[in-house]
Amino acid sequence: MTIKAVTPRVVEPPASLGMGVSVYPSATAMVWPGEGHAHEAVAVPGVRLGPGDTLVEVELATVCGSDVETVLGHRPASTPLVLGHEQVGRVIALGRGGAKTTDGKRVVLGERVVWSAAVPCGRCARCRRGVPQQCASLQKYGHERMRRGWELSGGFATHTHILGGTPLVAVPEHLPAEVLAPASCPTATVAAALEAAAAIVPLDGALVVIAGAGMLGLTAAAMATEAGAKVVVSDPVPERRDAALLFGAVAVADPAAAPGSRSGLPHALAKVGGRASAPSIALELSGADSAVRSLLSVVDVGGVLVLAGSVSPGSDLPVVPEILVRHLLTIRGVHNYAPRHLEEAVRFLSDAGTKYPFAQQVGAVFPLAEVDAALASSGFPRVAVRP
After folding, report:
1. Per-residue pLDDT tens digits for 239-297
2. Contacts of 50 (CB under 8 A, 6+ apart)
3. How far apart are CA 56 and CA 91, in angstroms?
4. Which CA distances in Å does 27 have to 7, 17, 263, 290?
5. What is the CATH number of the domain that holds 51?
């Protein structure tokens, strides 16, 4: 199936009904009916844009690990569902009153943008307290059941209907879509994780150990390096350890290495830190229970352990209160991110997105109609679908 670029036609209904936009040929969403079923192409000929809403033509969408976990049945999901929450696109229509980017500028037609994976309400107690990423009525692109009025609710489509209140950030024209699409998930999440760490220990000059060299870990290695840290990355896969070196890591370790092995984490930390070989910042980005325990055992006095990979239920973490007290340790959790973190993600990619091989981490690009093949693909931190 070939999906062509489209030109929207704006239909003027009564003001109370919002702005109607008809797209010819019809916008198309790849809809997942549920576990064990292939995606189905669904035409969405008309979109009703409410005040502050935006219609974006998707340029490229990358496949997150959570998308794969969903179709495998490892994550609960309400179906039918349009998956995808990492993408970059171009604005083709605006609801009444228009929309603004996070820096307060008016969004203009034709502007290239990325948007937050989540829509906060901006009014609840959590939003007012400064944690909109955990809004009491949070909606997430690629996670909500397809419904009338919000059919284009995920990135695996020719277009995405961006709801009013969604943080939007304009992005440079020169950066490849493969670099920008992950901004709304791994890059912004890492920005939040590093901010959480830096609130306890300054990044500049710190020894940082990262567990996991997937897209989160590679991004964290590059961002921490750019902030002046010395980075050690631990991952059991040799190819991922090699990639971490390309993203700024000064040493890598195999968490499965035998005690005392030169490829183990203690040796890597000693090689980088010398006598001060205990890291003051540890980032757990793999989601492995063993990695959490390992990092907790090596972090230095006064250090901080940031957990961002444990987004699925796992085993209990045994923590001895005396060690937390005597070692002055801080453990922080990061899930989702605030608008400022998406802004920071785009700033980082604008400055260093081509300095590191981010584009090469997207190993294959599939046509939108072949989204099932994209979800089944493996061997790279990311694959993508292009409408």
Report:
1. 999 999 999 999 999 999 998 899 999 999 998 977 778 999 999 999 888 899 899 99
2. 18, 19, 95, 96, 163, 164
3. 4
4. 10, 20, 51, 45
5. 3.90.180.10
Residues 319 and 381 in one domain: no
> Per the structure block, which two tokens stand in for 323?
């060690």
Q: Which residues, given as ranges, of the chain have pLDDT below 70? A: 1-19, 314
Q: Give the domain range for residue 290.
A: 187-333
Domain-located, residue 205: yes
One domain, residues 70 and 201: no
**Same-domain pairing of 102 and 67:** yes
Domain count, the chain: 2
Q: Which residues contact 129 (CB under 8 A, 6 or more apart)?
A: none
- Using CA atoms, how far apart are residues 204 and 228, in angstroms rounded to an integer? 4
Measured between alpha carbons, how far is 344 from 188 in angstroms, rounded to an integer?
7
Angle between helical axes of 238-246 and 215-226 (0-180°, round to 10):
30
Half-sphere exposure of 347 (CA within 13 A, CB side): 12
